[in-house]
TrEMBL record:
Signal peptide boundaries: 1-21
Protein name as annotated: Endonuclease/exonuclease/phosphatase family protein
UniProt keywords, alphabetically: Endonuclease, Hydrolase, Nuclease, Signal
Gene Ontology MF annotations: endonuclease activity
Amino acid sequence: MSRLCITLVFVALLMPVGAHSEGRVIRVATFNVSMEGGNYVGKGVTPSGHELPAALSNSDHPQISNIAEIIQRVRPDILLLNEFDYHADPARGVKPFLERYLQQSRAGTTAIDYPYFYQGPVNTGVDSGMDLDRDGKASGTGNDAFGFGLYPGQYGMLLFSRYPIDFEAIRSFQLFKWKDMPGNLMADMRGADGELWYSNEIQEQLRLSSKSHWDIPVRINGKSLHVLASHPTPPVFDGPEDRNGRRNHDEIRFWTDYIEGGDQAAYIYDDKGGSGGLQDNRFVVVGDLNASMEEGDARREGITALLGHAKVRRGLLPSSDGGRANRADSTFGPTHTASWGMRADYVIPSKAGWRVIDAGVFWPAPDDPLRRLVNKRGSSSDHRLVWMDLELID
């Protein structure tokens, strides 16, 4: 079956059957889907974590239906979802999304299935026991959680795969302490009064990752692909201390050190006690990194170092006609991945092991019939699905 393309940079509706069956061309994607509890409550209502399971209780929620249709149209082989609430029981989130949405045809599209998935715990909403925003009380949630969240698991992550996941070899870094990163930007963080924002006692306990960092090996035709997944905190919603901006930078820097390996990654340890960085050269960094080299409020040296790393392949940038139309005033509009106008979401392949075939952002132009899927935030998300086709080479 040949691929049907709407535009040169737009999403392909079906992958060629031969590419999937041979496992030579892999479509890798990331999508911040806004499937967290706060998206399903009224204004001024505090979510509790029960909202996503309730929204998934049937198969006709409009926003979730559109998200499923987008995924069915793009048809990624490996897909990271950001802002998909974490529940330890897959029956409360992952499985109903698979069974009631992805495995059911939407608007005439072909249903899609993912035999393998991984979802682990995250730091969002986990009580730190400390007053991290210095408002005089340790509230337990929100800004005083290890990662901003109103309940444990909010803004979680989920990886889907058509190929087997090597679960025993997964490395997670949820518990890694920020202080243990050499040269971290936390140590000298000071408020407007000139005092250390975090006391030495607090610095001893803070975790680096606002959600988590995952290294998930996926087995493709006997070869291993390391999917490096994360969702760094937005570099805003703070004060002159720039605690979120500094954290965003260091969360991104973590991957730069990790893929470098050797002495530069010697400080890294995972949640099982393993140490060091990535041992293989074939990887792909995916996620909503909340940073751009050209725009926005992030400390740009973090994302610049990652994208410019010697082991990262540069060249073809995912783009869309919808992004171009959304910000016609911006030179970078075609590569934007969020409705508010920035490249925030990334699929970053390694230089080794791949040949980049194609890439795009699912963002239909204003006159496209599929515009209904992204017409407003409530249609699906304020982010767009980003995909890249990678040909596996030895």
